[in-house]
């Protein structure tokens, strides 16, 4: 019995160490993601006017995927020199409309009569 207890305790100890390691890795990953997101928001604060930032914040509540795509596109356009900061609300609206057009799916309903 004593050997089984030691083996069981060793298995528990290894499992606990593995879980702790996984928890630490997950925490590091979350911290890294939070840092990247904070840097991203700092860049966007420098690139967008206050009204454009407000519009993007409101959009995040309704369509977060479109807001994320718009942020990516704004950053990319500025980095490639195709847009000059600060990006105003009208320019952001144009970008959002273009993104919406390219991502929206048109549905056609056909009714077949017998």
List keywords for this structure.
114 residues, mainly alpha, Helicase, Ruva Protein, domain 3, 79% helix, flat
What order do the helices and strands come in, and which of them pair?
Elements: H1 2-47, H2 50-62, H3 64-79, H4 89-103
Mind describing the biggest β-sheet? none
Q: How many individual domains?
A: 1
General shape: flat
CATH architecture: Orthogonal Bundle
Fraction of residues in β-strands:
under 5%
Q: Which CATH class applies here?
A: Mainly Alpha
What CATH calls the topology is Helicase, Ruva Protein, domain 3
Q: How many H/I helical runs?
A: 4
Structural class estimated from helices and strands: mainly alpha
What is the ordering of alpha helices and beta strands?
HHHH
The CATH homologous superfamily is called PDCD5, DNA-binding domain
Low-confidence stretches: none
State the distance separating the first and last CA atoms: 79 Å
Q: What is Rg?
A: 25 Å
- Approximately how much helix is present in the residues? over 70%
- How confident is the prediction overall: mean pLDDT? 91
Structure description:
The chain is flat, with a radius of gyration of 25 Å. The mean pLDDT is 91. The protein contains four helices and no strands. The chain has a single domain, classed as PDCD5, DNA-binding domain (Helicase, Ruva Protein, domain 3, Orthogonal Bundle).
């Amino acid at each position: 019995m004593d050997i089984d207890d030691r083996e069981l305790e060793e298995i528990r100890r290894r499992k606990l160490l593995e879980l702790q390691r996984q928890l630490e890795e997950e925490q590091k990953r979350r911290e890294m993601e939070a840092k990247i997101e904070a840097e991203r928001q700092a860049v966007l604060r420098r690139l967008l006017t206050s009204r454009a930032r407000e519009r993007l914040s409101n959009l995040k509540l309704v369509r977060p995927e479109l807001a994320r795509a718009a942020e990516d596109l704004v950053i990319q356009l500025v980095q490639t020199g195709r847009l000059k900061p600060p990006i105003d609300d009208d320019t952001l609206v144009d970008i959002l409309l273009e993104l919406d057009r390219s991502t929206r799916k048109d549905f056609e309903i056909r009714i077949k009569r017998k």
